[in-house]
Design goal:
Blueprint: H1 8-22, H2 28-34, H3 39-46, H4 54-64, H5 68-82, H6 86-117, H7 119-127, H8 137-144, H9 148-160, E1 164-166, E2 172-174, H10 183-207, H11 227-247
Antiparallel strand pairs: 1-2
């Protein structure tokens, strides 16, 4: 378990993110006011450029956390980050591991799941492949139609999970690292992702001209024994699409989503 997993900055960012998820217009300025801090100071704290004192940590913990365990974890993380005494730092770390190691690991798992379930995380990764695009929060927000706060939190999360890295040219780019999550919860996150993307496909019918989209469908009867082969054909098609895009020398200038929906229209019990 590394220091990034056990950091009070991660807990603060998690609280800020929870507020943004409830209200996308919620700002860092509003959060700093709630914490009784200056916006610039809070920004430096979240970026690891400034620490808060243990006394300030107690005040923040009382404002944010309802359970005594969460308050102890937060204050302990601040003590580890700020104390200069080796013995005090060791004791604080032992206390943290007793009360918070499971929560910290769960926090990292939650970070990964949000990358899967919130559609714009995957979009940001591929957005960095567009020719000349610089992935600043404001530009990401503008291109994807999300709030700047959502964009900044998403970019920070992708960087912390090492899914976005800084390239030789100083720009953020998609890394080769892969997400690691448990299968049972990953499937639920994937359901959320696909629901969001199908919803965005429906929105495109009203918002985009026909020359910018291609939405077709086919309804047919079949024998379910043919489903495995049908899925193979779809996978072959997806592979061909990937090969075509990878081999194209033209610079990428737009981001698209390809959805393929194959599902049963009839309901069980309606055979009669």
């Amino acid at each position: 378990m590394n220091n990034e997993e056990l950091s009070y900055q991660r807990l603060l960012r998690g609280e800020f993110e929870a507020r943004v998820r409830k209200n996308p217009r919620y700002s860092l300025r509003a959060f700093s006011k709630f914490l009784e801090m200056e916006p610039a100071q809070l920004s430096r704290v979240l970026n690891g450029k400034q620490q808060i004192s243990p006394s300030k940590a107690l005040r923040i913990a009382d404002l944010i956390f309802k359970s005594a365990r969460d308050r102890k974890l937060f204050v302990g993380l601040v003590e580890v980050a700020t104390t200069k005494s080796v013995s005090h730092k060791r004791q604080a770390m032992e206390n943290i591991l007793r009360v918070g190691s499971r929560d910290a690991a769960g926090s990292l798992e939650l970070e990964s799941l949000r990358v899967i379930s919130d559609w714009y995380h995957i979009a940001i990764l591929d957005l960095t492949s567009l020719d000349g695009f610089v992935a600043t929060p404001s530009r990401v927000a503008s291109r994807l139609g999300i709030s700047v706060s959502e964009a900044k939190l998403a970019v920070d999360r992708l960087k912390s999970l090492e899914l976005l890295v800084v390239g030789d040219d100083g720009r953020l780019k998609k890394a080769s690292a892969k997400l690691r999550t448990h299968t049972n919860v990953r499937s639920e996150a994937l359901k959320t992702f696909h629901k969001q993307m199908i919803g965005k496909a429906a929105e495109s019918l009203d918002e985009q001209p026909t020359e910018n989209r291609y939405v077709v469908g086919k309804t047919f009867a079949l024998n379910k024994a043919d489903l495995p082969r049908l899925r193979e054909l779809v996978e072959e098609f997806r592979s061909q699409v990937s090969e075509l895009l990878e081999s194209s020398p033209a610079p990428k200038n737009s981001l698209y989503q390809l959805n393929v929906q194959l599902f049963e229209l009839t309901k069980k019990g309606n055979e009669k």
